[in-house]
Amino acid sequence: MLDDVQVAYYDSNMNHFIYRGQHITDKIEDDEAQDGAHVFGDIYQTMKNRLFKLKHHFNLTEGVQVQQKLAGCEMLDNGEQAFVMFKDTFNGIFADYAMYDNVTHFAYDAGKLLPGWDGMRRAYERVLFENVHFPICIRTLKRFLKREKNVVMRKVPPRLRLIKKEVSGGLQVSCLAFGFYPRHINLTLLRDGQPVAEQELTGGQVLPSGDGTYQLRKSLEVSTEEPKKRHNYTCTASHLSLDNKLDVSWESGAERVHLSTLSALLVMVLIVILLGIFICVKRSRFLPV
Questions:
Q1: Residues 98, 230: one domain?
Q2: Which residue among 9, 112, 165, 289 is least packed, with the fewest CB closer than 10 Å?
Q3: HEC states along the chain?
Q4: Dihedral class, residue 193 (left if φ above 0, else alpha if ψ from -120 to 50, else beta)
Q5: Helix, strand counts (H, E) of the chain
Q6: C-alpha closest to that of 107 among 116, 117, 97
Q7: What are 87-120's pLDDT values in tens digits?
Q8: Are 56 and 187 part of one and the same domain?
Q9: Are 99 and 106 in contact (CB under 8 A)?
Q10: For the chain, which ranges sit under pLDDT 70?
Q11: Is the pTM of this model over 0.90?
């Protein structure tokens, strides 16, 4: 993955690093393929070995066991290396974590499941991170960033909706931002100009939309009495694609006034129509045949 865009995968049967980015017809250079095969092959074998040890450690002979590994590196905007890290989990339980940073150097957490590294192993892993994993990861990152720059660096502004609907016991007011990229966004629901506390809201997770963009919804449930009061709800969003904040508002209680006014006008129109019909019928009786 390059940020949140899939660019390649590893075929463990063929021991091949396979490109799956936007420019699918581009040829992968030999050194790039070798780097990918080396790194992913190492990750694959490490995961297999770790899975075997943990199954033996906990005497797990039946059922499906899940070994997961998150590994990657980060580069600063100026092209300098930031850090490289990995994190392992087994059946959803944190196993261990390691990170090599150009500033803070090497950090390791043994986790909860297996004994940690001894001093000699830590020294070996640090050298491996510094001289193998870090350079290869940053080199690969730069290659893919150059190739996929138009995809990962694009900016698509969000569209914003403030949705209200009746639910059991009251009304739900939802703030929805959708169709935006990148995924980082600040979305706030305001009531009478004041932010609604996060603990009062449901949702709040950024989700993929299926078209390469993202969506985020935050919802507030209010009592049946709340809409009768005059409150101004505002949904506001700030995003990298926007120069200024985007917002949309709704005033509760105002619609009831508008509805009452509309109802009165309809009644008056109906009375006028009925009166006109009555006059026409009455006049027709006195017309000569």
A1: no
A2: 289
A3: CECCECCEEEECCCCEEEECCCCCCCCCCHHHHHHHHHHHHHHHHHHHHHHHHHHHHCCCCCCCCCEEEEEEEEECCCCCEEEEEEEEEECCEEEEEEEEECCCEEEEECCCCCCCCCHHHHHHHHHHHHHHHHHHHHHHHHHHHHHHHHHHCCCECCEEEEEEEEECCEEEEEEEEEEEECCCEEEEEEECCEECCHHHCEECCCEECCCCCEEEEEEEEEECCHHHCCEEEEEEEEECCCCCCEEEEEEECHHHHHHHHHHHHHHHHHHHHHHHHHHHHHHHHHCCC
A4: left
A5: 4, 15
A6: 97
A7: 888 888 877 888 888 766 788 888 877 777 888 9
A8: no
A9: yes
A10: 21-33, 103-104, 226-228, 252-267, 278, 281-289
A11: no
Residues in the chain, overall count? 289
Give the count of domains, the chain: 2
Tokens representing 267?
């009644």
